[in-house]
Design brief:
- The protein has 4 helices and no strands.
- It has one domain: Methane Monooxygenase Hydroxylase, Chain G, domain 1 (Up-down Bundle).
- Helix 3 packs antiparallel against helix 4.
- With about 100 residues, the chain is mainly α.
Length: about 100
Amino acid sequence: MTTVAGYVSPELAASARPPLTPAQKTERLAFTFCKLGTVGLMAWLLTPPIFVIVVASAAIVLYGRALTQGLDRARCILRYPRLIMGFWAAVVAATLTWLIWLQ
């Protein structure tokens, strides 16, 4: 917001955020699935493994999309999109292996 003659207060200028890039928008969504996958892993005994497969797969796809849009660092604890995707791919592989061998 501006005041008379276009003056912007320092407090308001400091709180203004620049618009998000497409990669940042996609990373926000991917980070949500990363958090969901983490909760699913922590609650492994209470949740069906199918939940982990679906959420981890969504995180892989979304981080892949953010990566192609130029994202080089993410908010997820692993920080690097390729590392995050590799981790979740390993989780999906382990979960599928576990489901196949136990069934």
